[in-house]
Amino acid sequence: MAALPSLSLQYFAKTFLTHTSSFRMLHRLTCSFSTSSSSSSSLEFDISFAPSKHKPKLESKTTEADPIPDDDDAPGGAGQLFIPWIVRGEDGNLKLQAHPPASLLQAVADSEIGPKKKKKKKKQKAEKSTSEPKHSKAARRFYNENFRDSGMRLSKVLAAAGVASRRSSEELIFEGTVTVNGSVCNTPQTRVDPAKDVIYVNGNRLPKKQPPKVYFALNKPKGYICSAGEKESKSVISLFDDYLKNWGKRNPGVPKPRLFTVGRLDVATTGLIIVTNDGDFAQRLSHPSSNLSKEYIATIDGAVHKRHLIAISEGTTIEGLHCVPDVVELLPHQPDAPRARLRIVVHDGRKHEVRELLKNAGLEVSFNNIHSLKRVRVGGFKLPSDLGIGKHIELKPTDLKALG
Asked: Fewer CB near the terminus (10 Å): N or C of the chain?
C-alpha cells in the first residue's frame, strides 16, 4: 500500500465523522467486488451509513467477515456512525473488519516522521548558501555585499575622509604610513569601519565620522583646470575655497569633504561641470555604459556651410574609436553674436571630442569669444541660465535624478 499524506489517523476519522451529518439520510449501498478474473463469484456487502431500526446485515457469499460491532455497541453510544474497512486477507479474499489494517497505520506513522527530515535538510541547505563561494566572481561579489562583514575598503575610506585621492591613498598605504588598530596595513583592499576601527595616517588619527555626500553644479570659467591637485593655482576646486572655509561653522565636528570633478573639461572650455565627493556617483556618471548625452555650444570663426554639417555628422576617429555625434545643428543668427554658433550633442565623451569633430570638418573654434566652446547640458540636467561664471549651486534630489 502506498504511503498516505501526512495525516494522523485520529484526525482523519474525526474530520470524516464531523462532515457525515448529510450522509445519515442515505439508503443502504450494495458493493460488489470480483475476487478474480477467472471466477464468476463475487462479494456483496450491505453497508449502512446511518443508524436504522433494523441493524444492518453484512452478508458474504464466499467468506465470513470479521465481527463488527453494532451501532448501539460502538463507542459514543447509540447512533454512532460506523466506518467499515474492506481489506484483502492473507488467503486473498476480501473481508470487512472494524479496525484499519496494520499497513495503513505503519504508512501514517512513516509519513509523520518525513517532514522533520525535510526541515533538517532545508536548514542544512540554508547554512550552505551562506558559505563563501570560491568560483564565480559574480558570486563572490554577491557574498561580499550580502553576507560578509560590513565595512569599506581602506583606500576608499581615506579618500572619502579627504586624505587624498583614491590612487594617492593607495600609495600611502603601500608606503606603510597607515595603521589600523595599532598595526601597519599595506593592503588597500582591507575592509574597515571608521566608527569602530582606529585608523592613523602619518601619525594623525582619522575622524570617526565620515563627511556627508555633497553634489554641485559649477559654471566653469575659461582658464581653469579640472584637477584637485594642490599645486594647481587655477584649479576648479579652488573656486570652492570659501565654501570649505565655512564648513566647520555649518557642520561642527564633521570633517570636510574632499571635492573632485566628474569628468573633465579642457582649460579653454567653459560651462557645466559636476563637482562632488561621492566616488561611486562619479564613476556611474563618467562610465561609458551610462551613455549620458552632453550638449555643447560652439562659436565658430568663419562661415558654416551644409558640407560642414554633413562632415561633422559623419563623425571622426579619436584614439582608435569612430565617434559620431547625436545632433548637429546650426543655430539662428543673433544680433549680439556675429559669429556662427553650432549646437552639438555627443555621448561618447572622448577627449576633445567636439573640437576634433569640428577640426575634421575644416572648422575652427573661435578663441576671441569667452564662450568659444561651452557645455550647457549633461544628461537631463541643464546649466541654469542665471548661474554666473565661476559660481556653483548645490544639486537637489530631482537634479541628481535628471543626471541619471
From this structure: N
Question: In the chain, what's the furthest Cα-to-Cα distance?
Answer: 121
Closest residue by Cα to residue 71 from 86, 51, 46, 48 = 51
Q: How many domains does the chain have?
A: 3
- Return left, alpha or beta for 304; rule: phi > 0 is left, psi -120 to 50 is alpha, else beta: beta
* Separation of CA 211 from chain center: 26
> 254 and 343 share a domain?
yes
Question: Which listed residue (46, 193, 266, 280) is catalytic?
Answer: 266
Whether residues 180 and 281 share a domain: the answer is no
pLDDT at 34 over 60: no
d(CA 51, CA 21): 12
The answer to the question of residue 72 being in a domain is yes
The b-or-e profile of 308-345 (16+ CB within 10 A means b, else e) is bbebbeebbebeeeebebeebeeeeeeeeeebbbbebe
Question: Active site includes 72?
Answer: no
Task: For residue 360, give the CATH number of its domain.
Answer: 3.30.2350.10
Q: What's the average model confidence in pLDDT over 28-46?
A: 50
Nearest to 275 by CA among 222, 214, 352: 214
The percent of residues above 90 in pLDDT, for the chain, comes to 30
Task: Give the residue among 247, 252, 315, 309 at the shortest CA–CA distance from 277.
Answer: 247
**Residue 62 maps to a domain:** yes
278: its cell numbers = 561621492
Q: Which domain holds residue 192?
A: 152-205
Helices (H) and strands (E) in the chain, counts: 11, 22
User: In terms of domains, do 345 and 245 share one?
Assistant: yes
Distance between CA atoms of residues 100 and 84, nearest Å: 9
d(CA 220, CA 276): 14
Q: Is the pLDDT of residue 374 over 80?
A: yes
- Pairing outcome for strands 373-378 and 270-276: parallel
- Report yes or no on 114 lying in a domain: no
pLDDT tens for residues 194-211? 888 899 998 888 888 888
Q: What is the pLDDT of residue 361?
A: 92
Assess contact for 264 and 272: CB atoms under 8 A: no
Radius of gyration of the chain from its Cα atoms, rounded to whole angstroms: 43
Q: Is residue 1 predicted with pLDDT exceeding 80?
A: no
pTM exceeds 0.90 for this model: no
Contact 153, 189 (CB under 8 A): yes
Query: Distance (Å, rounded) from C-alpha 298 to C-alpha 365?
Result: 7
